[in-house]
Amino acid sequence: MAGRRVYSRRPALFLSIMRAMRINLRVRVAALLLLVSATPAVAQRMRAGDSFKDKVAAWRGDAQVSGKITDDAGKGIPEAKVTFIFAKSNDGFFATTKKNGEFSAKDIKAGEWRIQIDAPNFITVRQNLTISDSKNPLVAVTLKRDNSPELLTKAEALFKAGQNAEARAEYMKVLEAHPDLTGINRAIAFTYGREGHHPEALKYLDLALASNPDDRMLLQLAAASAMQLSDYPRAMGYLSKIDEAALDDPAILADAAVNLINKNRSADAITVLDRVIARFPEAADAYYYRGFAKLKANRNAEAKGDLEKYVALAPPGAPQVAQAKELLANIK
Question: What is the pTM of this model?
Fold first, then answer.
């Protein structure tokens, strides 16, 4: 009964973390808005036809290609940047479209190329292109309007209002248009986590962690979702990647340990709390939780030492002090 009284006061870990993340999500969305609207820096420092490298351009040759960039209505897009990368040398140049959307590239080498088309307020397009020494067909590319900034703003408002499925739909649209914006995976994971759809939450948390492997908030959320699925080895794997030396708050790991205790994973909880106490030797609550976990693991002598340490460190009015003394009185 003592254990239930102690831990019932703690909200579910995923939901408590999500509430703490609301402000952070707004900041991240603002950062993503800047990324969506940014113009590639390399293009700003070069002139059309310049090589990306200082050496003699390996892509120079006798071939040529031309094309036209249009919008959904078939209207030419002026000032679009068409970047050419010669696959063999990973070097290239860019051309700029005319007022009617047309562009041309001359004196280039035949072979495999990669092209990327960027234009303000349009979704970037990337594709492969094979250029031959003989006459090449016209390169015709249609760009779709990019409303990602508006979608992100809408998604953040929906998320804030608790409309998770609706927010997720907007995030998905942005991710489809900008797969390089890996931060969107984080936001999608949050919507699934708030709904309790932990398999999907983990899928997108893992995608977010692929580009931010040391993000302790993502690792904490992933561990919480794995625990909800009773996948404790996976949960412990996420927790092991949190660098306790960089923590300034014991709660990051202590909350996970409490979750493990509530899942009857006392040995795992003790492992996590050992790390907490090694990093924060004056954190009174960690001794109480570890003592409680050791009692559940029938390690009474060790539990007694932890509970006595808790009583010595905790303020006299702390709510667990009376419970700790009661547990100590019952240890044989």
Answer: 0.65
